[in-house]
Amino acid sequence: MLTSIKIRIDLPVDADKSWDPVTDFKKHIEKIPGIKYEMLPYEEDHTNCVEKLFELGLTNVINPEQYSEALGTPYDTRTDIIYTIGKYLKRIILADHLVIVDNYIFWGENKKESYTNFILDIFRDYIPKLQKITFVTNKRHYDKELHNTISEGFLNVKKHISIDTKFSDNFHDRLWVCGDRGIFVGTSLNGIGQKYSLIDYIKREDLSAIQSALRAEKLI
Hints:
The protein is α/β, with parallel strands linked by helices. It has six helices and seven strands.
């Protein structure tokens, strides 16, 4: 019985050298007894484009200069902001544990029903995909009542989700991490839309350093 397999081999070509990798490949493969092969036209593989975005970050893939997306401006509506955040969340929430580092997410001055509903509207579609959410925030800006209200809203979406809150003074930027993917957010959730802010993916090497720092403080 004959067995056929299909493989793809990308051979590098250096235009400045006379060496022909295709000819060299043929010489080697034709030494295999009974082998039959066909040289097909080259087709560029785009399947790893998304992975490249997460590995290198949007900034480096599109432009070597900074090119983050505007997350919130004084001219954006609440719907605009939720939509923009959602584009990023759906690409990073591929694991079941989301870590949100935000020093002001439970700030006492945010005690407004509209703010709580805004938080829930951002995460409502993604809570069912998670088993645990860890908030890392600053204790000086922490309001227990607001924390309980937001937590109750999350639990109303998914009854058995685990919600953990830790405190640290060692993180300035707003960081959202899920498994081996993450984003940075230019302002705390309570400030989005008040001034210009940006959102972008975190590079894999930076993400690894962030996770190591979180583990070192026993925050995750």
